[in-house]
Amino acid sequence: MHVSGSSRFSRSEQVVELDAEAFEAIVVDELDQLPDDMVDGLENIVFVVEDRPEDGSLDLLGLYDGWALTERDRYGFGEMPDRIVLYREPLLAISADEQELREEIHVTLVHEIAHFYGIDDARLHELGWA
């Protein structure tokens, strides 16, 4: 499996506290608010919320784990779905309130979905999404 890109940020103190269920509800709400042309092309992909990255750090906000559309050869023949992972504790740690959390989740979703479409970090930075 190819890991294409991730969103990183660093702050060490958690300000907003939400349990996993409330956090996931915000993620679903933010996904619903994304433009149709951004999400209509998503196929064989799942969105996952985890507390922290495997290394336990708070500096990774999200991760696209899969093969970008621009890198796929044959696809759709029984492969496991690609994953976009949002990390709850790091996103909470950089957010002063729920509105800021929603904004960070939105930006992280756009960033990771862009990796699905083959947009790299340099281009995302040019576009203001990295």
Overview of this structure, please?
The protein is of the alpha+beta class and 130 residues long. It is 38% helix and 18% strand. It contains five helices and four strands; from the N terminus they run E-H-H-E-E-E-H-H-H. Strands 1-3-4-2 form a four-stranded mixed β-sheet. Helix 1 crosses helix 4.
Extended strand count = 4
- Class by helix and strand content? alpha+beta
What do the pLDDT scores average to?
86
How far apart are the first and last residues' alpha carbons, in Å? 23 Å
Helix and strand run: EHHEEEHHH
Note the beta-strand portion. 15-25%
Largest sheet: number of strands, sense, barrel closure:
4 strands, mixed
Low-confidence parts: 9-14
Binned, the helix content reads: 25-40%
User: Going across the major beta sheet, what is the strand order?
Assistant: 1-3-4-2
Helices, by number, come to 5
Rg (CA only) = 14 Å
General form: globular
SSE order and pairing:
Blueprint: E1 3-8, H1 20-33, H2 36-39, E2 45-50, E3 60-65, E4 82-87, H3 88-93, H4 98-116, H5 121-127
Parallel strand pairs: 2-4
Antiparallel strand pairs: 1-3, 3-4
Helix pairs in contact: 1-4
